[in-house]
Amino acid sequence: MILKGRARVFGDDVNTDYIIAARHRSQTTDLKDLVQHIMEDIRPGFYESVRPGDIITGGHNFGCGSSREHAPYLLKEAGIGCIVAASFARIFYRNCINLGLPAVICDTAEIAEGDQLKVDLDEGVLYNLTQGWERKTGRLPQIMQKILREGGVLNYISRHGDFEVKGS
Amino acid sequence: MRFLEFSVGWYLGCLHSLDPAVGYQNRPWVMMRGQDVVRVSDSGEVILAGTRSVNSQLKRGVRMGKTIAEKILSRKANEDVKAYDLVVAEVDMVMGTDTNGPTAMEYFRKLGKEQVFDPKRIAFALDHLYPCPTAAAANIHHVMREFVSEYGVILFEGGEGIGHQLMVEMGYVLPGELIVATDSHTTTYGAFNSFGTGFGSAEAAVVMATGKSWFRVPGTVRVDFTGEFAPGVVSKDMVLYLLGRFGTRGLLYKALEIGGDAVARLSMAERMTITNMAVEMGAKTAVMDCDQITLQYLEERAKRDFTPVEADDDAVYEERITVDVSDLEPMVALPHSPSNVVPVSEVCGTRVDQVLIGYCTNGRYEDFVAAAKVLNGNKLARRTRLIICPASRAVYQKLVQSGLMELFLSLGAAIASPGCGACAGYHTGILADGEVCLATTNRNFKGRIGNPKADIYLGSPLTAAAAAVAGEIIAPDQLGVNVA
Q1: How far apart are CA A168 and CA B4, in angstroms?
Q2: What is the pLDDT of residues B427-438, one digit of tens each?
Q3: Rounded distance between C-alpha atoms, residue B211 and residue B206, angstroms
Q4: Range of the domain at A102
Q5: How many domains does chain B contain in total?
Q6: Helices marked H in B211-364 — which ranges?
Q7: What is the ipTM of this complex?
């Protein structure tokens, strides 16, 4: 699986309250309304600026805080194609995989806003096409790769009925 | 996988992180320090495994003991597992709140199963959005009640309290068990020697259908607390101290095992404050021993038979520290991170407009007894508001019966319905632009209490009550009341 997109650069400890603040979630259950508010407390106007396939890059502990699955869901809904971060908070990371949104662990230092990035999930390589370098990325354990490839954990369970982990 | 393990002088080579979900894998050409231990797997992978203290434990014998987290996951996976194994494990209980639970319900329906795996092991709590502030919230609750009656699962109705508190009070959280919930503060359950961890909605739906999920067994960091508290110091200050020490990601993906004589003396309420906030350090779970205090709490509450687990004497920890609590002062976390921790003495005099006492971190009877020590005989500062939020209706009733509620009301406090309300930023205590709140809650992210233009400080019930009286941040023992 190869993904290409513009880098949208964020720092360390981007929490899920920043990705989608709770105050909007009691106002509406319509995801089309909610999605407009992504990142607004730390980057006003972010939603309007997203182009399909944009790749969010983060520092350490991306997605920390609340377990809200709306956070990765809304990023995906907004058109984000992939998230690359130095490290992820665990619930957010699981949620991404479970929803079929690629979350890739890689050193993101020096990536600049707007850089053209290419992520090769199979080979585990991040290419910065603008700056002309490549870096190896973390690769998912097999079970998570399968879940991601099948479009999330619900599809996976619908298809297999149960988990297969041993030997993976 | 078998590992060859050794300590290194200097090592220059290709380094893999222990956990692919945490750090960089394949980080080439990394220089390691002398105290580092590396593992070489039989496939030739070189892994940074820890520090010399781990190494010395490894040298003691061939058999390596297990931590509490490893033992619980071994039991639930029906195989002998150790840190960093990937396992499928049976889940004892799954809880969903009204924020992420509805999505789990929707996903469960999509899976097309006629029944849940066990209706007695699935609970939903109407806690974040009750009493409903909007029609959207009320509609969410309506949908949840319909699902609950259709599948016969457990419902914690609005006003009964916060899901985590009810899980504990009603005896659904038991030693040696594996429990997941669609809320990050599921780590709270570790106070009961239970492996509690936060889940997303999709995987919670899968647990509802299969009773299982996959887990990577976490490595464990052990913290022992010893000694006696100085006046004005309580368990909240212990966990704030840890946050200052480990930061927001120091325990990412790890289990925090907490023990020591200072913990053994704490009530269950005080213990739950510590495990509740472990997730703010990135921890996957936080576990304590099961002792007489635990068993006494569970007597007449436990819904199932249980078998506690304890760590082996030769358990392998990634890091082990001891903290003497007599060295601790009352602590606060400054805006906008729970790890931005300083002693109260460094920020004395900071104006406080609103004080929140309660919620899932500090909303138990013992917390209000502590706050009342400070409030009794005093008045609220003229420009400072106090909001009390018991973690459950049972706590609320105990406050009424004991007379503490009368004290809070006579001082002019507002009482919030047991639930998550202001702490989660939904309702019942949203701040104005530029206001400052001192809360006993667990998060002070920008915007957390509903307004990104407000500042939130986190502190203990004693520190919060002192701020309500003084109208500014002040050490609780500086008010001239006995807080010991």
Answers
A1: 21
A2: 999 999 999 999
A3: 8
A4: 2-138
A5: 3
A6: 235-246, 261-264, 268-276, 292-298, 359-362
A7: 0.91
Q: Which domain does B279 fall in, by range?
A: 224-287+315-327
Select the residue from B14, B17, B22 to test the A interface by mutation, using most A Cβ atoms within 10 A. Answer: B22
Q: Does the beta-carbon distance from B426 to A90 stay under 8 Å?
A: no
Residue B67 CA, distance from chain mean position: 19
B462 in the same domain as B411: yes
Which of these three, B295, B327, B359, is where a domain ends?
Answer: B327
Per-residue pLDDT reduced to its tens digit, B284-306: 999 999 999 999 999 999 999 99
In one-letter notation, the amino acid at residue B388 is I
If you write DSSP's letter for every residue of chain A in order, what string do you get? -EEEEEEEE--S--BHHHHS-HHHHTT---HHHHGGGTTTTTSTTHHHH--TT-EEEE-SSBTBS---THHHHHHHHHT--EEEES-B-HHHHHHHHHHT--EEE---TT--TT-EEEEETTTTEEEETTTTEEEE-----HHHHHHHHTTSHHHHHHHHSS---TT-
**Number of domain units in chain A:** 1
pTM reported for the whole predicted model = 0.89
Residue A125 lies in a domain: yes
pLDDT in tens, A77-116: 999 999 999 999 999 999 999 999 999 999 999 999 999 9
Chain A / chain B CB contacts < 8 angstroms: 177
Which of B180, B217, B252, B277 best probes binding to A when mutated, by most A CB atoms within 10 angstroms?
Answer: B252
Residues B363 and B469 in one domain: yes
Cα(B52)–Cα(B68) distance, integer angstroms: 21
Do B251 and B359 share a domain, yes or no? no
Asked if B425's CB is within 8 angstroms of A42's CB, the reply is: no
The answer to whether residues B253 and B371 belong to one domain is no
Length of chain A: 168
